[in-house]
Amino acid sequence: MQRYTWITDIHLDQMQPDTTARLLQMLRQDDPDGIWIGGDISQANSLLEHLGQLDDQLQLPIQFVLGNHDFYLGSIQSVRKDVESFCATRERLTYLSRSSWLPLGEGVGLVGHDGWGDGRIGNYATSTVDMNDYRLIDELSGLGTVERLPVLQRLGDEAADHVGRQLEEALQECQHVYLLTHVPPLRAACWYNEEAADDAWAPHFTCKAMGDMILGIMRQHDERQLTVLCGHTHSAGICQPLPNLVIHTGGAEYGQAAIAGRFHVG
Ligand SMILES: [Fe+2]
Ligand SMILES: [Fe+2]
User: Which residues surround ligand 2, an ion (CB under 5 A)?
Assistant: First the structure.
């Protein structure tokens, strides 16, 4: 049996040093075998420093994905590349978007990807939600609503492709797989104030490509179990769209230290 502690949307760049110290202390007290981080760790200009701080101070395996905020003031492509290179120098850090699936214990595996709000759920065309993503991330800034949509869709497809390949492989050997991602894959998992996101918010807060992929694969593996851990909405909830598929959405508040969940695996 192994124990993992899950945190998400910690936004360390917006956390006071004493709160960061308290979060680190909470994680140390948990004394887990590893830590899962569901993205929105920091932003591009401070991400590597914060990942290094987590690694140095916790001295535990950390498996993570990135969220939209991690790319603010940078580009998705260069941040992902820089994080991959950084992890190559840090044995305990694993960036799941650039990694094969990981065996966690007897019959249990972990897959992951950042995911992306891919504009396909709700009503993207009429949504007036204006994300900072669309100003602060190189690949998205300066694009109009119409030209932005195929970019969002490509980001969602890329996430679903990576996880689809890794999940199929993991399910050959594992009874139970965990999927760590930032963006909720279904509207039912896109909690906000205890309700599913409406048509204006859902396009920016759900990754339909990921949702369709996991539903398709898990319907073909009804003897296997998938547990998804996502964040991004900062509102906690659990949904179970299939008997063998449970999705946990982690809650968070800017500037607050919190554990999103604890899992015993194997
Ligand atoms: Fe967040
Ligand atoms: Fe986010």
Answer: 40, 67-68, 232
- Strands 102-105 and 108-113 turn out to be antiparallel
Ligand nearest to the CA of 71: 2
114 close to 84: Cβ distance less than 8 angstroms:
no
Alpha-carbon distance of 129 to 124, in angstroms, equals 9
**240 has pLDDT over 90:** yes
Q: Please give the distance of CA 39 from its chain centroid, rounded to a whole number.
A: 5
On average, the pLDDT of the chain sits at: 97
Please tell me the distance between residue 57's alpha carbon and the centre of ligand 1 in angstroms. 22
- Terminal alpha carbon distance of the chain: 5
CA–CA dist 216, 253 (Å, integer): 33
pLDDT reported for residue 194: 85
Dist. CA 97 → ligand 2 center (Å): 16
Q: 11 CA to middle of ligand 1, Å? A: 7
User: In this model, does residue 192 exceed pLDDT 90?
Assistant: no
C-alpha 19 to ligand 1 mean position (Å): 17
How many angstroms is it from 50 CA to the middle of ligand 2?
A: 17
Q: DSSP character for 175?
A: S
Does the pTM surpass 0.85? The reply is yes
| pLDDT for the residue numbered 190 | 97
